[in-house]
Amino acid sequence: MPDYGGPLGVSLRDIGVTADVLRGWADAAEAGGYSGIWVPDIGGHDAVTTLATFAGTTRRVLLGTGVMPVFSRPPLVIAQTAATLDDLSGGRFVLGLGAGARRPTERWFGTRWSDPFARLQAAVAAVRAVAAGQEVDGFTLAFPPVRPRPPVLLAALNPRMLALAGRLADGVLLNWLPLDAVPDAVARVRKAATEAGRDPAEVVVAGYIRACVGDPGELADDLRPQVLTYLQLPAYAAMLRRYGNADVDRVAAAAPEERAGLVSDRTVEELVATGTADQVAGRLEAYRQAGVDLPVLYPLPAGEHPAARVLATLSALAPGRPLPAGFPSPGPA
Questions:
Q1: I need a surface site. Which of 16, 55, 184, 277 has the fewest CB within 10 A?
Q2: pLDDT at position 6
Q3: Quick check: 81 and 94 in contact, CB under 8 A?
Q4: pLDDT at 320
Q5: CA dihedral of residues 192, 194, 195, 197 (deg, nearest 10)
């Protein structure tokens, strides 16, 4: 087992595999001692149904949406879903919410893009009111909630969203954040919590950390297009530009067919942990030391057998560590 000093979650993103493969990854994550399993809600198996399945096959790990776009469902539906998954999992569910983006909001979810900050606040309020047994717009949960306040984490990239998470949420989920940028992001969350009269230590800082165990030189060409995808997304581009990444503007100015070649080895190394299991574990520990309470390993596919590479990374980093102090504990094992 690599020498890693803290709790570690794992993100299981659907990369075109079957539900059986996802269940196998979840079983491996629980057996390996990960503290939680986080499922993005992007374009494959939907996170809610997947986590409901994991709730029936796992017994110990936290189960989190990482993240659910807030415009994908009305606030009351999000609240009902959170209460249901918390019930199915015996109090192990964590609701990760994110703003999403205008294009999927209007094209995929069939709703109109509006102020994401207001929408997130409405969703968090609905989740907490419904779980507390309150009536909201004529709706009352028809079963007893497992917990009166299931934890809610907000995905945050920009300073305003980091501040909202500090004021409002039980935690924040950082994503594609360079190690050198972590102290600034954490400080913004803690400062907002303090100004809101909260104990800043009660706001859990989680962070996705992309990783792929293997030789960096051999992996770079497989990882470059995956990094490029996020360099081209406006919110991520703005965050990385703010923290000094020079590739963002070069990519934006280039023809589409030239862009992958403009993602430098330095940017790949900055955003994806590669190397031996011990080297990747050292990178995870560096994030923890920089202020991330709960690093979440995000195994990336690569090579001729991408699913096998994901499982190999997941297995090589299996930690067997407890949850961070202050984080809501799961139900009984």
A1: 16
A2: 67
A3: no
A4: 65
A5: 130
